[in-house]
């Protein structure tokens, strides 16, 4: 399923769905400043959108939620908006989660929603105080 999705990972960025929708509409319709009223319905009809649960959740449920008998996954992971998960920096499987998400088409964002490289993301992850990782999955007709 990962090949049918693009991933966007933010660090202390807050929800990414609006930002990702803007980026995708700009790309799909080749516009600089997307008018959601004009483009959103056509964008969705072309097969773009967000789902809950995410394909990533369905494919990697054990990695995300099965953390051991006395470990509550709610301490480490929370649903965000449709197509998003909020993952705490201390999730026991965080490195594996990021590795799997990075196997697909992925972009990384700082807390200001500036696009950053994976190495910049890793550096921020190591230095940020209790960072929150937002994993956003955009489905599309790829």
SSE diagram, text form:
Blueprint (H helix, E strand, L loop, with lengths): L4 E7 L5 H13 L6 H10 L9 H5 L1 H5 L11 E3 L4 E5 L5 H8 L3 E5 L5 E2 L1 H10 L4 E8 L3
Helix pairs in contact: 1-2
Describe the structure.
The chain is α+β, with helices and mostly antiparallel strands and 142 residues long. It has one domain. It has six helices and six strands, in the order E-H-H-H-H-E-E-H-E-E-H-E. Helix 1 packs across helix 2 (36-45). The longest helix has 13 residues, at 17-29.
Tally of DSSP helical segments: 6
Question: Which overall shape is indicated by the principal axes computed on the Cα atoms?
Answer: globular
Going across the biggest sheet, name each strand in turn. 2-3-6-1-4-5
Ends apart, CA distance between termini:
11 Å
Main sheet? 6 strands, mixed
Order of helices and strands: EHHHHEEHEEHE
Q: Determine the structural class based on helices, strands and strand pairing.
A: alpha+beta
Helical percentage: 25-40%
Mean pLDDT: 92
Number of domains: 1
* Rg over CA atoms: 15 Å
Q: Tell me the number of strands.
A: 6
Measured by DSSP, the beta-strand proportion falls in 15-25%
Low-confidence stretches: none
Brief overview:
By secondary structure, this protein is α+β, with helices and mostly antiparallel strands.
């Amino acid at each position: 399923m990962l090949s049918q999705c693009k991933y966007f990972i933010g660090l202390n960025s807050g929800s990414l769905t609006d930002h990702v929708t803007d980026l995708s509409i700009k790309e799909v319709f080749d516009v600089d400043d997307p008018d959601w009223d004009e483009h959103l319905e056509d964008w969705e009809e072309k097969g773009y959108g967000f789902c809950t649960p995410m394909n990533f959740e369905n494919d990697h449920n054990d990695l995300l939620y099965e953390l051991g008998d006395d470990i509550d996954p709610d301490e480490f992971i929370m649903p965000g908006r449709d197509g998003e998960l909020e993952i705490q920096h201390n999730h026991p499987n965080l490195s594996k989660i990021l590795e799997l998400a990075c196997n697909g088409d992925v972009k990384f964002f700082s807390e200001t929603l500036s696009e950053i490289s994976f190495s910049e993301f890793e550096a921020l992850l190591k230095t940020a105080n209790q960072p929150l990782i937002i994993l956003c999955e955009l489905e599309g007709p790829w």
